[in-house]
Amino acid sequence: MDRRKFVSALGLGLGGLALAGCEQKDCPPTDETVAAPPEPEKKAPSQQTYEWKMVTTWPKNYPGLGAGANRFAKRVEEMSAGRIKIKVYGAKELVPAFEVFDAVRQGSAEMGHGAAYYWKGKHPATPFFTAVPFGLTAQEMNGWLHHGGGQELWDDLYAQFNLKPFACGNTGTQMAGWFNKEINSIEDLKGLKMRMPGLAGEVLGKVGATPVQLPGAEVFTSLQTGAIDAADWVGPYNDLTFGLQRVAEYYYYPGWQEPGPTLELTINKKVWEGLPADLQAIIRYAAQSENQDMLDEYTARNNAALDELVNKHGVKLRRLPDDVLKALKDASDEVIETLVAGNKEARKVYNSYRRFRDESLQTMAVAEQSYMNVRSELQVKS
Asked: Which end of the chain lies in a sparser environment, N or C, as judged by fewer CB atoms within 10 Å?
């Protein structure tokens, strides 16, 4: 063997024996034994505490709507182990119902709970994030917002007003309203003074009625005194709570004006961005939880309430005639087209909303709608 090769081989062999015989702690590092660099130390979540105010558009502790705001606040406190405490204020306790948007935007309160269509005067696109006539159901609204691009559009829109929005409640399809006379044709709506918020109010105006904007707390008294002739509020559960059966005789359906009204949680954007990520997640998922919980509550409680209204209080339950619904639909299409004309943001939101609705029509027709029709037919036959 070549001398140089022999020396080299001998050196490697002896070196291997030396390494094999050494204690591990004394061994020189090799490629296999070099320790990985230590992981960066994870910072523990900040333990800073927050005490926030939430202003709402609802009467204090009002069943369903107001209770939902309270449940949300309680969930956040429990999930954050008390790091966020939220005091909930009903309408007029801190600010009037229709000043919630500005109170949160300006920082007078950190959070608000209401309905986006109250703020149409701020931007024409806001009604799409609550309800528009003949629009999306609650199930479809959740699909559009959470998986159809609606939330991103909502975020972009409200960022202009220093707000971060979340869906935080839904009543399901509402009723068409309370009347003190029968509605047999579109002529019967002409001249009526009716409490009706959002775009639906404009639709009523287009067919000859006079829409009136009122917060919920004023609906009963206004009907009782004759300040208005008719009113929509929510549905059986809330309408029974308000005692509207005592001041109006006829109860009409379907709720063409609010098929799936989403309630909103708004947070001052600067305040939101100042929260640590774990508290942001708690708020996000608490809102999502309440969004579903409120819908579940209305689904359960409307059944007994409608039965009581009809069978105990003698309310006259009526369906709006087809020609009235057709006239309202035609007027709705005109109102919405006028709303988005000339406003690129509103048009963009509407295009997304309409595309989701149109795509949903076929699926809903062969799934939920066809099933409900079959179930009703078979129930009647049995």
From this structure: C
